[in-house]
Structures are given as structure tokens and as C-alpha cells.
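One record is kept unedited as follows:
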Amino acid sequence: MSVFTVHEPPARASEAFASPERFAFVRDGFSFWAFLITPIWMLWHRLWLVLVIYLALSGLLHTGLWAAGASGGVRGFVTLLLALLVGVEAGSLRRWTLGRRRWRELGVVVGRNRDEAERRFFDAWDAPAMSRSAMPASSQVPPAGGPRSGNDIIGLFPEAGASR
């Protein structure tokens, strides 16, 4: 099972709220493509600042290793380690970039793949509650009918006060 974080983009001028079709689901964990073709992966995901930092760091490391007289094997090993680091932190790099672009993190969802994670998120997603959470607390109105039951209760019994 994979863990995904769900991010909502800022609403466009013509929208009151961002369209759910524009939500981003970012998988947590190792990214093989970020490891294998790091700069192309960064370009694909529009991680411009991350790419500039990666190229600067890579250039500084290789220049330093070359000045220190390190062999080609050592320089290749350092390149491999840097690519491994990007592969491990790929999800965090995407989340950091989305945060800088003012995207709001809505939650975390688990699924076998992205499609299942999207289905699970949108099945449980309450758009009006999400919009109320974006309002100041003084203007929030409690939902009609009182608190929801079901998945909101954590414990041994499915409902408050119930026993079997």
C-alpha cells in the first residue's frame, strides 16, 4: 500500500474553490524515475528551484572532488549517492514545491495505487467542510444534524455508548 498526500491548488480568479480535477496526489516513498533520470524528472514535475539547487550542488561537489584529485570512481559514487538521495526524497521535494506555490495540503490517503487513493479520498471528502475549515473560526457554522457518526469515532465500539 502506498501513502499519498493530497494538495489543493489556489483557486483561480473565476473560481470560488479550486476544482477537484486539479488536486495533486503526491506519493510518499522512493521514486525510481527521480533516481534514474533526476534532471528530467524534475523538469517533468516543474520543480524549477529544486533543479537549480540540484545542478548547483552537483556542480560544486564535482568541482570540489576534481580539485581534490578524486578518481572517476569516487566522483561516480558521489553522483550515485546524490541521485539516491533525490529518489528517496522525491515526494518531499514535490510537497515542498507545492507549499511554496501556496497549495494547501488537505490530508493523507492510503491506496494500492493512485487511482485507488483518489477514489478513497473523494469517497470520504466533504467539500463544504473543507471550505468551512478555510474560513475563520468565528464564521464557521456547525454542520446540520450535529456531529457525524461512523468513522469519526475511534475505539472498540462503532458508536458512542454501544456495546456488543
